[in-house]
Task: inverse folding
């Protein structure tokens, strides 16, 4: 991927700041969004939705402007644009702190500094308006960061640098800004095939296996271990985190190999931390595994396809999402543009019960609203967000026929805050 943004654009008064028309630094306001007049029927809470994606300073074809803040209508699920933070390049993944008062974003670029690094930015979140205030930006420790997450303690931010092949750990300072980098790991391993042997029939899509490509990094629910999905080496790595130093030490079983060529991409933990759902991009498979919270060992027990047996053609699985009650699991399939619905058995096993059209192109991340009543999909190539009503009894989803326009979206975060 070629990126044209230089480090100076992250400074105050940079090129991105030139398009700001709001009184808030870094924001472009939507003049059509008006605060409701106070009345007895006014909502007691507000739900904000933050959407990141690719900008013109990111991968070719990026149409986004930055991080857009929407307000969700809690009755209909509709999203109304409030403002966009423009002083950031290609925020392709964002993550909230555990207390929802901070938001962190990667910039999936490779020219932030002379080491061909991407960037990571910290923001504070104004719960009264939803606005973001930039705290600081640091080099990510590798090119094209594709994912980040926050430790349950809020003390560390983890970053997966996809093209750079590295995993970085950053200390979080008292004000929420990013401090020193406490760890940088570069995985190595043998060259893997570009396609998996168990691909769906007719799949011509290729995943990059030229080197290490960390695609997701996140801790287990206890915060003791940190897991990394490496889509280039077809491995799931596990490290123990030293909470005092921010250093990572390989677990007793340092990695679990996945199907060669399968490109492990994202994962979901059950709340207990003992069940793990691993999504592989290239062969569109979900691997169900037992996870030992004491040793960090991963033990695969089932593999299921995220497309039906009738499917033929190219597909790349993208997002995975477990329902709040852990009775259902959802997967987005790019190229085939479908959403898979799995029922979760009491032992954690999966059964595919539905597959529907996502009504858009190249759906990536999936996210529930805080109530779990609506499921949203970020459709990168359609420049839109689509939403679905969730039947909490059956797990099945139905399209709302609501399209929210936004350039090249890739990720979400939601918060619900009280109205003062």
Result:
């Amino acid at each position: 991927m070629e990126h044209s943004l230089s480090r100076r654009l992250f400074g105050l008064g940079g090129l991105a700041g030139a398009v700001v028309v709001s009184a808030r630094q870094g924001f472009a306001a939507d003049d059509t969004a008006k605060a409701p007049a106070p009345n007895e029927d006014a909502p007691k809470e507000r739900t904000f939705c933050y959407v990141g994606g690719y900008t013109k300073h990111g991968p070719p074809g990026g149409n986004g402007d930055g991080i857009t803040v929407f307000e969700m209508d809690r009755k209909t699920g509709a999203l109304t644009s409030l403002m966009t933070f423009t002083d950031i390049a290609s925020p392709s993944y964002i993550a909230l702190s555990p207390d929802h008062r901070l938001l962190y974003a990667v910039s999936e670029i490779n020219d932030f500094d002379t080491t061909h690094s991407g960037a990571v930015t910290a923001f504070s979140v104004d719960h009264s308006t939803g606005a973001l205030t930039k705290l600081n930006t640091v080099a990510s420790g590798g090119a094209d960061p594709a994912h980040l997450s926050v430790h349950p303690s809020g003390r560390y931010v983890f970053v997966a640098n996809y093209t750079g092949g590295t995993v970085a750990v950053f200390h979080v300072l008292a004000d929420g800004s990013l401090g020193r980098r406490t760890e940088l790991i570069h995985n190595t391993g043998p060259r893997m095939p570009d396609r998996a042997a168990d691909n769906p029939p007719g799949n011509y899509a290729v995943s990059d296996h030229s080197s290490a490509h960390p695609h997701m990094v996140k801790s287990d629910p206890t915060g003791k271990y940190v897991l990394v999905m490496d889509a280039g080496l077809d491995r799931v790595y596990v490290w123990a985190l030293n909470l005092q130093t921010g250093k990572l030490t390989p677990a007793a079983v340092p990695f679990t190999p996945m199907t060669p060529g399968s490109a492990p991409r994202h994962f979901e933990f059950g709340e207990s931390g003992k069940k793990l759902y691993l999504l592989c991009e290239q062969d569109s498979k979900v691997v169900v595994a037992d996870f030992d919270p004491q040793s960090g060992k991963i033990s695969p027990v089932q593999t299921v396809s995220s497309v039906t047996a009738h499917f033929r053609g190219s597909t790349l699985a993208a997002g995975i999402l477990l329902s709040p009650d852990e009775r259902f699991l959802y997967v987005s399939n790019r190229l085939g543009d479908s959403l898979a619905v799995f029922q979760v058995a009491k032992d954690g096993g999966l059964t595919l019960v539905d597959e529907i059209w996502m009504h858009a192109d190249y759906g990536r991340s999936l996210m529930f609203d805080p109530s779990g009543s609506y499921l949203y999909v970020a459709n990168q190539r359609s420049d839109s967000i689509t939403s679905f009503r969730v039947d909490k009894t059956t797990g099945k989803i139905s399209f709302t026929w609501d399209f929210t326009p936004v350039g090249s979206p890739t990720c979400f975060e939601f918060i619900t805050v009280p109205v003062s």
